[in-house]
Amino acid sequence: MTYAGAGNVTRNPVLEHYHRLPDIVAACGQEPHGAPQPEGFRPGFHFPELDEAVRGYFAAAVVSWRRLEDFQGHPMRLLDLTANPATQTTKTPASLLIVARAVEHLRRTGIPILLVTPTSANKGTALRDAVLRALELGLAEPHQLRVVTISPAACRSKLRRSRLVTDPELRALNPVLLYDGQQAEDVKPLAREFVRTHAADWARHTGGRMWFSLELANYMVADATRAFFEEDADPITPGEVRTHAHAVSSAFGLLGYHTGRTLLEAAPEAASIQRPESYLVQHLHIPDMVLSQRFGSFDRRNAPRYAWDPAERLYHQDVDPSFPYTTQSPSEIIDPTFYTHRPPTAQRMNEIIGKFGGGGIVVSRHECLKHYPAVRTALAHAGLSLPEDPDELAEWSLLMAMTGVREGVERGLIGPHRTVVIHGSGTYARSDYQPLHDGDAHLVQSVADVAAAVGAK
């Protein structure tokens, strides 16, 4: 991927708004003090002082505001969150803040921390990159700061090699685990159960703590800075209506963004600014957020029925504009990283959309491919590149979001006179990274397998 183009605004909202982190933490409903006991351990929301090394560590948290070509009368903007070449997704700022909290806890207490997280791919990649950055900048020693990720085996091709894999010592301390079970989402209870059953013994034998880091607030704090960046780069004007579109699994990013908007709206001068609408984009494999927003239920029976057209070799429906009109399969998987069933965040997102407006759409691969040439051209004009061959695209979230917006405008799901802000939460081609080699990861199916790979007794 390349990053260029005139008229773009690029900044580092984490560093620029570092002083506001305590306010964001409070707005997320979090206490500054963590849970120090091994069972349920989490460090407090304290961050290291901004010395030269810490500033260098957070340098990867840059984001860009890019103007896209208007689409059918709608001004289009891209909130590009993919600039860190080691991750190319929005998970970088949150992961940097998560690991920074671990570093600060280590400095205050001397207690080593092992982060444990389930991940489809991108959260784990970003956490591993943040740990490696901390080690390389001398913020911690290898035995003091470690990370173990558990991913569905189906997502193996999206996982990346780095020095945490190629260095023998770091590979042993920071294992990559692949869950070889039937349900991808089972990585979450597997990781949680491993920490629950082994944290106390880990503390006794090593003096360290295991931290199950997959919590909403851990990501909302960083995602709240998106709102501050928007205000710095292109503030909303009185009377302007914006729609923020995001390809989502659990909508962590939008929930964090709205936390930031809440803080901005506390200022008296913000009284005349309308809160942006939210527009969710999903795929047919798991459309639970859109189903919940539309029908107040995750029940898949609310989705439209599809009829097979043997001439076109496609499934069709024309009843519900929030679902694809054409698809190769009524349950297709566009990108395996969108894998969360019945997300607990759905109700909160429904309330936000109910109060401030918005909606959602489910897109198909067929629709993404239909829009691919136009999307590729639009992104190229803004300074981003997609591969010429869409089969080379490994991360589809940005393409899904842009397809959902284009379909939503054409179907009237996005109202007129809206400025559309697309959250570029991830995009990368297979040529952008080196995938795992054979032997780089451990296959696991049980808590015992995880313990053996991690070296937990």
Automatic annotation (TrEMBL):
InterPro entries: DUF6002. It holds the Pfam family DUF6002. This is DUF6002 family protein. It comes from Streptomyces vulcanius.
